[in-house]
Design goal:
heterodimer, A: mainly beta, Neuraminidase, four-stranded mixed sheet, four-stranded antiparallel sheet, 1 helix, elongated, B: about 100 residues, alpha+beta, 4 strands, about 15% strand
Chain lengths: ~325, ~100
């Protein structure tokens, strides 16, 4: 008869309390308190509820390079208009911090929770080129983008000192790419397909941009940036704009958004460097969200529409679970 | 019956977990309406979040009411705000839909 030691090379360990499911992945142990044989497995990715925003809103720029457990949500829109409210997330709840100087929606965001740039955006009274730098306490206006634009990705790629912004609307839909060196913006090679409201993740030298809205239709196209130019890769399964994204150029996740058939969707797709695969849905269909995360396995979807949502969902992939061996 | 229905207030982190999402179907709708997979884990979740059980018709009526409220708010907007604006996402009059 095969034994656990014979297969794994170690004995089943006795523990008074269970380890965390992720620590115990693919192991078996005996829980002496509950007199139960247990094991941990890595299940499929899923969305869970996160702490709700204090100010419900949509069209939110967030810090895409921040992890889902420590991110920043700056500006956006709520009835009756654009807001300057900024909130920080600590993995459990949101705390209001100093406002951005210029209220706006559909801006872009680079950086992390304490070192971020909010880029351009706005709709009413107009589209702006204004950029503001966050030092963890307050916001300072820095050099403008070369071209005023809005409906850029909710999170731009890169950091507060090395950022990248692609596409958007001037309000004509554009394929422009601009890079940020911490001081000024420089125009680089354009996207192959002009779009606004894409999901963009990665760094200034390696990023992926997917989805969006072209001049007259929702886009499924995805393009990869190598630091010099954009190359087309496989399309998303569902063309949509105003979506969120997290991860890197070789391992990413895109979620939510607005498509031709749904004003808001709950769809989630993962990117493995070659193709997109549809995975588990959000609990609440939404678009115009704030969203980001540093890895494919840990993303955050913040607020959005319909209306102005305060609810937040957090993506984890894989989801570890502890199971009990039952013997009958 | 594949799904069951309740109302429950989303209190934030822990309201539904990653494990919950792998154990039963869950979707959220206007009016704090939740459509929940009808299995033991789903029923346990409704109890855990102090959900109030609803029939499908009751849940549908709540969502319909919320949509009607949103439609009235949309109808009251100035025409200029309802018109599609180049360069911005489509905001359309909310429409009723059938819960799964």
């Amino acid at each position: 008869m095969a034994t656990y030691k014979g297969i794994k090379g170690v004995k089943v360990v006795t523990k008074a309390t269970d380890p965390t499911a992720s620590e115990a992945d693919a192991t078996v142990w005996y829980n002496s308190t509950g007199n139960a044989l247990k094991y941990s497995v890595a299940g499929t990715g899923a969305w869970a509820a996160g702490g709700g925003l204090n100010t419900a809103r949509s069209q939110i720029p967030t810090s895409v390079m921040a992890p889902s457990s420590a991110t920043l949500c700056a500006g956006g829109s709520t009835a009756p208009g654009e807001v300057a409210v900024v909130e920080k997330y600590d993995g459990t709840s949101w705390t209001e911090v100093n406002n951005i100087n210029t209220a706006r929606r559909n801006a872009g965001g680079c950086g992390t929770v304490n070192t971020a740039v909010v880029i351009a955006g706005g709709q009413s009274p107009g589209v702006t080129a204004i950029c503001e730098l966050y030092d963890g306490t307050s916001w300072t206006e820095v050099n403008n983008l070369n071209q005023a634009k809005t409906s850029v990705a909710p999170g731009g790629a890169g950091s507060s000192t090395a950022g990248l912004l692609a596409g958007g609307s001037t309000p004509s839909i554009t394929n422009q790419t601009e890079s940020w060196d911490g001081t000024c913006w420089t125009e680089l090679n354009n996207l192959n397909t002009a779009r606004q409201a894409m999901g963009v993740v990665g760094t200034q030298t390696a990023s992926i941009a997917g989805g969006g809205y072209g001049p007259s239709t929702y886009a499924g196209e995805a393009e990869v940036w190598d630091g010099t130019s954009w190359s087309e890769v496989n399309n998303l399964n569902t063309a949509r704009g105003w979506l969120g994204a997290a991860g890197t150029t070789t391992s990413a996740v895109g979620f939510a958004g607005q498509s031709a058939t749904s004003t808001q969707t709950a769809l989630t797709e993962t990117w493995d460097g070659t193709s997109w695969t549809e995975v588990a849905d959000l609990a609440t269909a939404r678009q115009s969200i704030g969203g980001g995360g540093t890895t494919q396995g840990a993303a955050i979807a913040v607020g959005g529409a319909p209306g102005y949502l305060s609810s937040v969902e957090v993506w984890s992939d894989p989801v570890y679970a502890i199971k009990t061996v039952t013997v009958s | 019956m594949a799904n069951t229905y309740c109302t429950a207030t989303n209190f934030g982190k822990g309201f539904f977990t990653h494990e919950d999402r792998n154990d039963f179907y869950l979707s959220g709708h206007a009016g704090d309406v939740w459509v929940v997979g009808n299995n033991a884990a789903g029923v346990s979740w409704i109890n855990r979040v102090s959900g109030t059980a609803k029939t499908k018709a009751e849940a549908q009526a709540i969502v319909d009411g919320e949509v009607e409220t949103a439609q009235a708010a949309w109808d009251a907007l100035p025409e200029a705000e309802k018109a599609p604006t180049a360069g911005f996402e489509t905001r359309t009059r909310p429409v009723k839909y059938t819960l799964p």
